[in-house]
Structure formats: C-alpha cells, structure tokens
Amino acid sequence: MTDNYQLPLNEIYLGDCIKLLKKLPDESVDLVVSSPPYNLGKEYEAKQALEIYLQEQTVILRECSRVLKSTGSLFWQIGAFSNKGMLIPLDIRFFPILESCELIPKNRIVWARQHGLHARKKFSCRHETLLWFTKSDNYIFNLDGIRVPQKYQNKKHYRGNRKGELSCNPNGKNPGDIWLFRNVKHNHEEQTIHPCQFPEDMIARIILSTTNKNDIVLDPYMGSGTVAVVAQDYERYFIGAELEPKYHQVALRRLSKEPDQNECFPNLKTLRDYVEETGETIEKFRFDMQVAKKASERSKAKIYSEEYHLQEMEDRLLYEEAAFAANLRGEEPPIDRKPNGNGKKTPIRKQDKVEQIQLNLWD
Predict the structure, then answer these.
(1) Percentage of residues in the chain having pLDDT higher than 70
(2) Whole-angstrom Cα distance, residue 235 to residue 217?
(3) Measuring CA to CA, which residue among 241, 243, 238 is closest to residue 255?
(4) DSSP summary character for residue 223
(5) Three-state SS annotation for 67-132
(6) How is domain 4-140+177-255 classified at the architecture level of CATH?
(7) Is the pLDDT of residue 226 over 60?
(8) What is the mean pLDDT of residues 7-12?
(9) What's residue 87's pLDDT?
(10) pLDDT reported for residue 173
(11) Sequence ranges of the domains in the chain
(12) What confidence tier does 350 reach under pLDDT thresholds 50, 70, 90?
C-alpha cells in the first residue's frame, strides 16, 4: 500500500496502459472500470488474432487485479469478436481470464439497446455486457446511492401486522442487471469525436455503487475521458491511460470544462454546462461534432431517463413479438404506434388496449 499523494492522481497518461500499470503499487485503487478495444477492426484499434488479443488482455487484467484493493471492484465492458461470419461473445472468453486473476464474479450485466449491428444470416446484435468482479467478498456496494423507482410505488400490505404500510422500499429498488443507457451516438449531448464512448450515467451508477468519496478510480483505456469526468463530478480521484493523442486531448478538454483557443468544446454537454455556469450566450461557442449553425440550449433538448428507454424497449419488444404471433396465426397485427420514427404516437384502438392489459396480466 502507498499514500495517495504518491500516486498519479487526476492524471491521464499518454501512452501504453501497461507502462502506467507497472508503476502503480499493489492494492492502490478502489475501482477499475474500462472498455478495452474489441478487436473488431474499427478505425481506432488494430485487428489481431483473437488468441493474441486475449493473451494481451490477460497481462493487463493481472496488473489491474494486482493494483486493486481488497475491497475493490472491476467492471470490464465488452462486446463480441466477429470474423468471417463467426461471432464470439467476448465475455465467454474473458470470464476464465478474470477468475485466473483471483477475482470473484458478482454480476454479468446486459447493456441492451434498440439499435446495433445489423445482420442478414444471424440475429442482429442488440446488447453488450459488463462483467463485474471483486477482489474479495468484503467489497463496497452502496445500493442506496443508485436506487430506481419501484414498479408499484404505492402498493401496500393488505393484511397482517403491516396492513396499510408500503410493501416496498419507498426509496426505490435495485436497478437489476439489465441496463438500457442510451448509446452515445448522433444527437447525444455527450458525443465526442471518439467512435465508442461510455454514457456518463452508466459510469455514474458504477462509481456511486462501488466507491466512496475520495476513492480512486482507474481506467486503463481512458478514450475520451468519460470515467475521469464522472469521477471528478462525484468527488473521486481518477487515474488513466490513453494511447491515441487525439482522444487524450479530448479527455483533457472535457476535464478542463473550458473552451479552447477557437471557442470550441469537445461535446455539446460540456458547452451547455459552461454557459449555464457562466451566463455566456451559447451562440458564442461551438463544439467538435456540431452540424447546425448554432448549438441548442439544454432547456430545449429532449433528455430521457434510463427508465424511459427501458420502457420504450419493452414496448417495442412486446409489439414485435405480438406482430410475429399474429402473423403465425393469420390474425390482424397490432398497430405500430411509431411507424414514421417521429415520436408521434398513433392513437391506441380499444382492441389494442385490451390486448395490452392481457399482456400485463400475463407478466
């Protein structure tokens, strides 16, 4: 163990993460959270043989386990390896690697989304996974900091000693292991020039649940700096590394929360935060991914909660499965309430309302 002042706190090392990890002492960080390159041949990563890739990841994960405190957690967010029509979910290959690092599995979290990689000869990919492992059974987990609304918030006991009292925790429930934070793509205020970045809210859930204030969060693949930004926002220290200079610069700009010499911000969120804090007019500035003539104010933006997106996905899956069942039986299919993708819902027929009630009863 070492004192915090001896660590490179609140710094993002520009270079290979293994060089940074080798410099960190044993049991010096409270949380490791990252998304390594998926080896899918995207423009920001090199295509390698799967086994070589996994060997390299094993070296990194052993170092991450070494620097993790006994009360610490590791979250490794991964997708799938695709090659010539073959698709291998990487969590299957990473699970034994993490166990070989003497880490203990706690959850396999499914990060679902309505949109993803399209396919013609297999089912389209609509999820990625986060593997949560701990260093020991004596780990930090702060459920109260991440509760979500109960499904039946006002449901009460109808008999017994607790008759009339709420039958659920009024502060909310455990969010569960299926997450639907919106992917950071076009029209997302957090979008930067990085092609693949974490949603800040998802990282906030991880940090708030598995660390306390002034704890240390490590991201060996920092990318555009989301883990650092969220750690800073919630009074945690961060340590990280990023190999690509252009993404390293984006991360530093997000952390500074100031415009650059061209009055430009790394994303719309940082710009909106700045004008709300300073009172400056938004028209004075730009952001890297800006397409419109001027940036829009946050008050005019449609920003929805994770619960909203979960409900939207549930509604869509119910519709798709009901339409499939109707087609099998030669019945009239249900009405698609958003046929044009414009958010304007088609009025529900009385028959559809009855069918929806029946679906709810079956659940």
Answers:
(1) 83
(2) 11
(3) 238
(4) T
(5) HEEEEEEEEEEECEEEECCEEEEHHHHHHHHHHHCCCEEEEEEEEECCCCCCCCCCCCCCEEEEEE
(6) 3-Layer(aba) Sandwich (3.40)
(7) yes
(8) 97
(9) 81
(10) 85
(11) 4-140+177-255, 257-300
(12) very low
What stretches of the chain show up as alpha helix (H) in DSSP?
Answer: 17-23, 50-67, 90-100, 200-210, 226-233, 245-256, 268-278, 306-328, 350-362
Q: What is the torsional sign of CA 252, 253, 257, 260?
A: positive
Q: Which two tokens stand for residue 358?
A: 């029946």
The backbone region for 236, taken as left when phi is positive above 0, alpha when psi lies in -120 to 50, beta otherwise, is beta
Q: How far is 283 from 260, CA to CA, in rounded Å?
A: 15
Is the full-model pTM beyond 0.70?
yes
Give the separation between CA 9 and CA 41, rounded to whole angstroms. 32
Contact indicator for 335, 349 with CB cutoff of 8 Å: yes
Side chain identity at 150, as an amino acid letter? Q
Enter the tokens of residue 102: 């003497």
